[in-house]
Design brief:
Elements lengths: L1 E3 L20 H6 L1 H11 L9 E7 L3 H9 L7 H5 L10 E7 H12 L7 H14 L2 H10 L12 H13 L4 H14 L9 H15 L4 E3 L5 E3 L3 H5 L5 E3 L4 E2 L8 H23 L5 H20 L6 H4 L10 H7 L5 H14 L4 H10 L1 H11 L14 H23 L3 E4 L1 H17 L6 H4 L17 H26 L9 H37 L18 E4 L2 E2 L4 H11 L6 H8 L2 E6 L3 E3 L8 E2 L6 H7 L7 H8 L5 H18 L6 E3 L5 E3 L4 E6 L1
Parallel strand pairs: 8-9, 11-16
Antiparallel strand pairs: 1-2, 2-3, 4-5, 5-6, 6-7, 9-10, 11-12, 12-13, 14-15
Helix pairs in contact: 6-8, 8-9, 12-13, 12-16, 12-17, 12-18, 19-20, 19-22, 19-23, 20-23, 23-24
């Protein structure tokens, strides 16, 4: 086969007999045997784009060659044939020419290179179908959906399927693409698994992992939907489209609080079993293994009911067995097996299981929990009875308690702001009481001497001076004390013990309270700095006179979530001394560019405070509520639904789109009033607007 650069004119003097039933290139591809014969003649491996080739074949293929001429895939001058010396029919050589680009395009079509579904996904699906069905069953399923029998030739089953899927997904016809999706949908129908729901779900889960990169999803019933692209989502298009062309609402995920709570309780037991298996070798490991498998079955029964939101789709068994847990953790690139459990627990925590539901499920599963406690030798009881703990258990408890006390004091007293709230204070008091009870043990007499001379009994104690105490010795004393306890724990064998569920929940609530306080503190500090910058711009502070002032900034107390106004101005003035250089021209420009927006429950939204125009009168019962709820900052979609009373998570999104549309139209503004945050949830667009709520 030799390349040719100059195009020559050809004359068609014949019509192929095959043209009577093959009239298009698509129909040629559907006659797979005929098409493959053509591919063998030209040897596609040597074909390159932007080249014209001349090659030859025997006269016995003249009808195929003429068909290819009729379809404009090759070129040949039949008059040239007449000039050849006559030999025995079938021995003459037919020479023809073709362009590489045309042939490569066809080859790409049936190899999946131009497929709308990734080639790798098509191959995985084809192999799965080939493994599950006989060749004749595949032919039956496919032909019932309109696939011509001529496209099948006796071949490896998965290759036969791959050819067909590639043919339809690479077509420019939307009808062909839909046919490919219908084929896939039919092969995962529950009846194809003889009604085996577990096998059906397993296969659907596999296919979803393969197809998600092409914005395709399959629901639990085996129905295929195409999802909006990223560009469409950015434009606010969030509809799902079935393969029948019906537009449906985005899938809503059902969450039953009691199912979520039980998931939490059971998975916590798995955590206890895993921890005990790894850290306490004397335990009966067979008993631990049997309990693990029993609880995992209960968990996966909950998952299978699809009543725990997205967790039903994202859940994966953490590991096959406790014996292989560490090896599987490494394979999954996790630090250890407990991290795999923690990842699942974190997923549950994001859905916010209710404490009442958890308490109820703890009671319902009390017999199972007791079996786990005995098998793991866990610390148990409705309250911790200090004197019944072993020395090793007591040291472990002391380590946990001191760690939480230290974190609580750091969150409350560090920095320029003092912040205390009643919830965290109540939790702190319980920690201090448990610490004092622990230190009454005779075997803790030595460590008791290392305890700091002073620890507040509650967070409100001597509040005005607590920041000074913490920064000037209190923090260092706590760190030294924690270090001594850590040494005790190491010398006692570094043993860890599973904790009762109520205590785990209590510790989780403490950690959550500390985290919330730190975020609130950071946010309040940022607002305070903004207020200082504004006052500087207005000339309220004479910084020139204070440049040499070495006075330390005064702290501002926030008690119970409310800022103490008395003396605030002096405090801000003092703080501003140390923040003079924090303001930059760039930051100032951004701030002055903010447009003022006033929001009133009576007058709607407007820009001019005096004329109250231009304005957008917020209509409806729920839209004003959305805006009001966002007054205090970011809110999750679930919170919006629960607070306002929406039954579907999609309703707030639609309402917000309408609010933004009317807001920009009425007030002649470019930016949305309400924005969706990258971290999830919604908030008012305070970056672009200076928003003020008025009566």
């Amino acid at each position: 086969m030799t390349p040719k650069t100059k195009k020559e004119n050809t004359k068609k003097t014949r019509r192929s007999n095959l043209l009577s039933y093959i009239k298009t290139v698509d129909e040629l591809l559907q006659h797979r045997e005929l098409f493959q014969k053509f591919m063998q003649i030209i040897d596609i491996r040597d074909v390159k784009p932007k080249h014209k080739y001349k090659t030859s074949t025997e006269e016995t293929n003249d009808d195929l060659i003429q068909l290819l001429i009729d379809l404009d895939l090759i070129e040949y001058d039949w008059d040239e044939m007449k000039k050849q010396t006559h030999r025995v029919v079938g021995n003459r050589i037919i020479e023809f020419e073709f362009y590489g680009d045309k042939i490569i395009e066809l080859h790409n079509r049936i190899t999946g290179k131009n497929s709308r579904i990734k080639r790798e996904a098509l191959e995985l699906i084809a192999r799965d179908i080939g493994d599950r069905f006989t060749f004749y069953k595949i032919v039956e399923i496919f032909t019932n959906l309109g696939v011509p029998e001529t496209i099948f030739i006796k071949d490896t089953k998965w290759r036969a399927v791959f050819y067909i899927l590639s043919y339809y997904t690479s077509s420019k016809s939307e009808e062909d693409y839909i046919k490919a999706l219908k084929i896939i949908q039919e092969t995962i129908h529950p009846l194809m698994f003889a009604g085996d729901e577990d096998k059906t779900k397993e296969t659907i889960d596999k296919y979803n992992k393969w197809l998600k990169y092409n914005n395709i999803t399959i629901d639990k019933d085996g129905q295929i939907y195409t999802l909006p692209t990223d560009d469409e989502s950015n434009l606010g298009i969030d509809d799902w489209v079935s393969i029948d062309g019906k537009i449906v609402e985005p899938k809503s995920y059902v969450i039953y609080p009691d199912h979520l709570a039980e998931f939490w309780v059971l998975l916590s037991q798995v955590s206890m079993l895993t921890q005990a298996y790894q850290s306490n070798t004397p335990l009966d490991r067979e008993s631990l293994e049997n309990l693990y498998l029993e609880i995992i079955d209960k968990i996966e029964n909950i998952v299978g009911q699809n009543k725990i939101g997205k967790l039903s789709e994202t859940y994966e068994r953490p590991f096959t067995s406790l014996a292989t847990a560490e090896v599987e953790a490494v394979a999954k690139k996790a630090e250890n097996s407990l991290n795999l459990i923690s990842f699942l627990l974190l997923g549950i925590a994001k859905e916010k299981p209710g404490t009442k539901e958890i308490a109820k499920k703890l009671k319902e599963n009390d017999k199972l929990i007791e079996r786990v406690r005995k098998a793991t030798k866990a610390i148990s009881g409705k309250e911790i009875k200090i004197n019944k703990l072993s020395y090793e258990q007591a040291v472990f408890m002391l380590k946990i308690i001191i760690g939480r006390i230290s974190n609580t004091l750091e969150a409350s007293y560090s920095g320029y702001l003092l912040m205390v709230n009643e919830r965290l204070n109540a939790q702190y008091i319980i920690l201090i009481d448990n610490l004092k009870t622990l230190l009454k043990r005779d075997d803790f007499a030595k460590i008791k001497k290392s305890m700091p001379d002073y620890l507040p009994d509650n967070l409100f104690e001597n509040l005005d001076d607590m920041d000074v105490w913490w920064e000037n010795g209190g923090k260092a004393g706590m760190l030294n004390f924690y270090g001594d306890i850590e040494s005790m724990w190491v010398r006692a064998g570094q043993q860890t013990f599973p904790l009762p569920q109520w205590l785990i929940l209590h510790l989780y609530e403490i950690d959550d309270s500390v985290s919330r306080l730190q975020k609130t503190k950071s946010k309040s500090w940022s607002k305070m700095m903004e207020s200082i910058d504004e006052k500087k711009e207005n000339g309220e502070f004479d910084f020139g006179q204070n440049e040499k002032n070495t006075q330390q900034p005064l702290q501002v107390q926030i008690v119970g979530g409310a800022m103490e106004v008395e003396g605030l101005k002096d405090g801000l003035s003092s703080i501003a001394t140390s923040t003079k250089q924090k303001s930059s021209p760039k930051k100032d420009i951004q701030r002055t560019d903010k447009k003022k927006v006033f929001i009133s429950t009576r007058n709607g939204i407007y820009q001019n405070e005096k004329t109250k125009k231009p304005s957008y009168a917020i209509k409806g019962n729920k839209r004003p509520k959305i805006i009001t709820i966002l007054k205090d900052g970011r809110k999750d979609i679930n919170i919006l639904c629960q607070t306002i009373g929406y039954k579907s998570n999609q309703m707030p999104s639609k309402e917000i789109k309408e609010i933004n549309s009317h807001f920009k139209n009425k007030l002649k503004l470019k930016d949305d009033l309400i924005i969706r945050l990258p971290t999830g949830g919604y908030d008012l667009n305070r970056e672009k607007y200076n928003i003020k709520f008025v009566n």
